[in-house]
Amino acid sequence: MSNNRNGYHLPIYVVIFRWIFRPIFRMIFHLLSEVRITGTANIPESGPYIIAINHISIIEPPFVIAFWPVAPEAVGAKDIWERRGQSLLAKFYGGIQVHRGEFDRRLVETMFQVIEAEYPLLIAPEGGRSHTPGLRPALPGVAYIVDKSGAPVLPVGIIGSTDDFLHQAIRFKRPVLEMRIGKPTTMPAIEGKGEQRRLALKNNADLIMYKVAELLPPPYQGVYADEQNHLSETSK
Question: Is 110 helix (H, G, I), strand (E, B) or coil?
Answer without folding.
Answer: helix
